[in-house]
Amino acid sequence: MQVSMIVNGEQVSGEIEPRLLLVHFLRDHLGLTGTHWGCDTSNCGACVVWLDGEPVKSCTVLAATASGHEVRTVEGLEREDGELDPVQRGFTECHGLQCGFCTPGMLMTARWLLDRNPDPTDAEIREAISGQICRCTGYATIVRSIKWAAAYEAARREAATADASSNGSAS
Amino acid sequence: MTAVDFRPPGFENNDQKPIGYGRMLRKEDARFIRGKGRYVDDVRLPGMLHLAILRSPLAHARIVRIDTSAAEAHPKVRAVVTGAMLAERGLAWMPTLAGDVQAVLATDKVRFQGQEVAFVVAEDRYAARDALELIDVEYEPLDPVIDVRRALAPDAPVIRTDLEGKTDNHIFDWETGDAEETERAFASADVVVSQEIVYPRVHPAPLETCGAVADYDRVSGKLTLWSTTQAPHAHRTLYALVAGLPEHKIRVIAPDIGGGFGGKVPIYPGYVCAIVGSMLTGRPVKWVEDRSENLISTGFARDYIMRGEIAATRDGKILAIRTHVLADHGAFNAQAAPSKYPAGFFGVFTGSYDLQAAYAKVTAVYTNKAPGGVAYACSFRITEAVYLVERIVDRLADELGMDPVELRLKNLLKPEQFPYKTKTGWVYDSGNYEPTLRKAMEIAGYHELRKEQAERRARGELMGIGVSFFTEAVGAGPRKHMDILGLGMNDGCELRVHPTGKAVLRLSVQTQGQGHETTFAQIVAEELGIPPDDIEVVHGDTDQTPFGLGTYGSRSTPVSGAAAALVARRIRDKAKIIASGMLEVSVADLEWRKGAFHVKGDPTRAVTIQDIAMRAHGAGDLPEGLEGGLDAQICYNPENLTYPHGAYICVVDIDPGTAKVKVRRFVAVDDCGTRINPMIIEGQVHGGLADGVGMALMEMIAFDEDGNCLGASFMDYLLPTALEVPDWETGYTVTPSPHHPIGAKGIGESATVGSPPAIVNAVVDALKPFGIRHVDMPLTPSRVWEAMQGRPQPPI
Fold first, then answer.
1. Segment holding B753, helix H or strand E
2. Bridge partners of A50?
3. Residue B758: what pLDDT?
4. B503-549: pLDDT as tens digits
5. Interface check A94 vs B, CB under 8 A
6. Nearest to residue B229, comparing CAs of B239, B218, B244?
7. Strands (E), B142-295
8. Pick from B347, B359, B354, B351: which is nearest to B321 by CA?
9. What's the whole-number mean pLDDT along residues A142-161?
10. How are beta strands B49-55 and B101-103 bridged, if at all?
11. Fewer CB within 10 Å, N side or C side of chain B?
């Protein structure tokens, strides 16, 4: 069957078997290997991507289901000018990854969380990533990484507000 | 503020950019945070086929007949292979790392549920899976041996009928220590405590399963194998021995590895199947197992039933420990441990204490379960050893009515006793234990916690405090004592400094997330003054790196870390001679300050390592007798293991209504000697602590009486998420290793080794009002509830 969807802002299409999983469409057909596959049963979250702005486990979504919709993967986090998303920086800054296998899914959930809750508590972060498994970090540094991104974005917002008000007074 | 450099308040000191040791952000992260890591399943080659393995649904059965005709007729199938076909090529069996043999594909019988029976190579992943359904296997079921306690019964079915003359399921008996001396110590003791302690079967379950891409070039005869391996060089040699391929025609590439924890040390049948598939079809073949395959067939860990006994005086002086272990090795003895150590390093079960005598006997048996036995960050069975001693010391404290901390403080080895030879022959290189335990108590607020516990207990609340103290033995060899299938446990390292003073370091060890690209660059930076960012670390490719046995048992820093420091020092020695020529002074008149040689007494006259590198490769004469270039290679043979230690304190609360255990706090104070990158060390500790929570409270690979694996998916094999673990509280002390060139000790497994007893000790402590003295892991709500009702149940 024919599917078409927007992936990381680009229109893509493909001729696929109806049973093809979204994770395999992304990895094997589009070559977007940043999304990983880890468990088959929606437990590990290595395959988390966004479908129409919501995190989903792409190992249990059919590519056909995603047809006509919008998908965002880890490859779509970095801005076109090469600036990293703050959650990407946060994970580097706070050692939020070791082997890197769970990282793309964690980043997608982290971005989703901060878009809805710019100043999450530790408990809210732990709740948000509780559908995902990391075998390396013991999670504390992931929590710190997401807090780093939140603090970074708060500081940037504050600076932008200050800039705007100083510009305003100058004009 | 610039977006790139800005750090929010509280995080300003995150990257200290050291030229040497210190907190430094990881070099490897750049690709992982962009989704640009390259794992085995990311490898795509032109014309690549996909392989899937048919596995046995039964634990023990005779194979009567296999019909592959329907699978072969599938339009997308390129090959279907059975054990009989491999047998014709002499490939049906392969050696295990423990010197046994294991079936690549079953020929005569299947011996565990999930055993490899046949494989299909097809045009895509889904078609390969489809074709498995078309293979018809007729089995004649046999009685399975599941309970390890019954494996040696005279009427137990014999599992390994393939071994000539084998009439039982016994693998080996291994002893250490002195039985008679230990008996005398027990006879003279005021107090003896005995306890059966089960360390259940668990699985390392790295998030990336095992897999391989085999590419055999029929023209050149060269095999390139991308595979999930922690030991690429050892694997290459074994493939040469198994497949009869010449070793120089085999290239093993370990790309990014999505976690290993010991599970990616053995050679699994799937790797061999991928190689055979590529040789048969002449095309690249990819095999990636799914999660169930990973959990039911690849290397499990533990599965030790330990009868432990401890003898002491009434005032709390520990005299002796002894134990008899029944070890379940599954259907094939495939554990990965040094050849002369069939029970791994279980011999360090004497722990961190000054004893008069010790004795252990380990009896290993075959059962109809998956093969393996050493994995999951266990330091070759030290996990089991530390759990045994730390549980039984707690049992003794309870018996004596002593505080478990006081009992440990009374018996810990003293700093002046090092190097200390244990009663089982291990020479602990260094240690200063009491400050480590005191520090953990201080961070935890131990005495206040005990007061709080008393108050809560009075209110009927179940709060527990658990302590453990461990000594690890990591960094195998030396080679005279330690080898794997005859390959000596030493590791190579090659360093080339380029003309502009940038460098490439080539390692035999293999990261699976430990951050080698950063840590090893820092080791060289410390020795040569070249910034870590100017040092490229190459690993995971047998064509590009010197020989060595790989990363497991926390070997990387103790063995290859030493190699990296020494190879850099060799470069520095040569650089010094070049510098003497450049500065026209004698070598004796030079002094090294990180990054440059200075003329003694005239610090303005100096040449940097970069200047020297250019001279080494440039025009003009070098001092007489010196070759050009600035390269060196060494193979490091460790003098001894390194012995990190640590003190852990865990606080738990148990819901009296549901018996659910909540880990409220966990304090870990580790001593791994010299600390290269504290951020990475802390990360290693954190990961191990989460493993400990998983093993203590959640994880078990259990079987029913027919041998069906009950932990065959992540819905059944429970791993901790962010909700089950606390925010770790860590601390450290520093006792450098006296024999390691930079004083560093391994850290990768300390927390996995040390944390389970702290958690179980805390739970048992919380349950004291119920008169409970021991509960076996995993301490799930149902098991704790049963224990609270007076019905403790050992796992099988």
1. helix B750-766
2. A55, A72
3. 98
4. 999 999 999 999 999 999 999 999 999 999 999 999 999 999 999 99
5. yes
6. B239
7. 170-177, 191-202, 211-217, 222-227, 250-253, 285-288
8. B359
9. 96
10. unpaired
11. N
Q: Are B711 and B778 in contact (CB under 8 A)?
A: no
Contacts (Cβ under 8 Å, ≥6 apart) of B401:
none
Q: Give the start-end residues of each E strand in A89-135.
A: none
How far B304 CA lies from chain A's nearest CA (Å)? 23
pLDDT digits over B603-625, tens only?
899 999 999 999 999 998 999 99
% of chain B at pLDDT higher than 90: 95
B515 to A74: CB separation less than 8 angstroms, yes or no:
no
Contact call for B205 and A17, based on CB within 8 A: no
Q: Which domains does chain A have, with CATH numbers?
A: 2-77 (3.10.20.30), 86-163 (1.10.150.120)
Tokens for B420? 């200390």
Look at residue B557 and tell me whether its pLDDT is greater than 80: yes
pLDDT mean over A9-15: 98
Alpha carbon distance B685, B667 (integer Å): 11
Q: Which residues of A touch B714 (CB under 8 A)?
A: 39, 41, 43-44, 133
| Torsions phi, psi for B662 (to 5 deg) | -115, 125
Q: Are B572 and B592 in contact (CB under 8 A)?
A: yes
Q: What whole-number distance in Å separates Cα of residue B723 and Cα of residue A127?
A: 7
**Two structure tokens written together for B682:** 């802390």
Residue of B nearest to A149 (CA): B8
pLDDT digits (tens, 9 = 90+) for B440-476: 999 999 999 999 999 999 999 999 999 999 999 999 9
Token pair for B654: 């148990």
Is A156 touching B (CB cutoff 8 A)? yes
Chains A, B: CB contacts under 8 A, how many? 198
Residue B64 has pLDDT above 70, yes or no: yes
Region B276-301: what's the mean pLDDT? 97
Token pair of B119, please?
A: 């494989």
Tell me what the pLDDT averaged over chain B comes to: 96
Mutate which of A37, A62, A99, A147 to disrupt the B interface (most B C-beta within 10 Å)?
A99
Strands A2-7 and A70-72: parallel
Distance CA(A140)–CA(A138), nearest Å, equals 6
Q: How far is CA B175 from CA A79, A140, B98, B324, B574, in A?
A: 62, 41, 17, 9, 49
- Please work out, in degrees rounded to the nearest 5, the angle formed at the alpha carbon of residue B3 by the alpha carbons of A169 and B8: 90
Confidence of residue B278 (pLDDT cuts 50, 70, 90): very high
B15·A93 Cβ contact <8 A: yes
User: Is the reported ipTM for this assembly greater than 0.95?
Assistant: yes
Which pLDDT belongs to residue B2?
46
Q: Which of the residues A25, A39, A84 would you substitute to probe the B interface, choosing the one with the greatest number of B C-beta atoms within 10 Å? A: A39
Query: What CA–CA distance (Å, rounded) separates B300 from B17?
Result: 40
Laid out side by side, the sheet with B729-732 consists of B462-471, B645-654, B661-671, B729-732
Rg (CA), chain B: 27
- pLDDT score recorded for residue B794: 64
Helix or strand holding residue A13 (H, E): strand A10-15
B5 CB contacts (<8 Å, ≥6 apart)? none
pLDDT at B498 over 50: yes
Interface touch B723/A101, C-beta < 8 Å: no
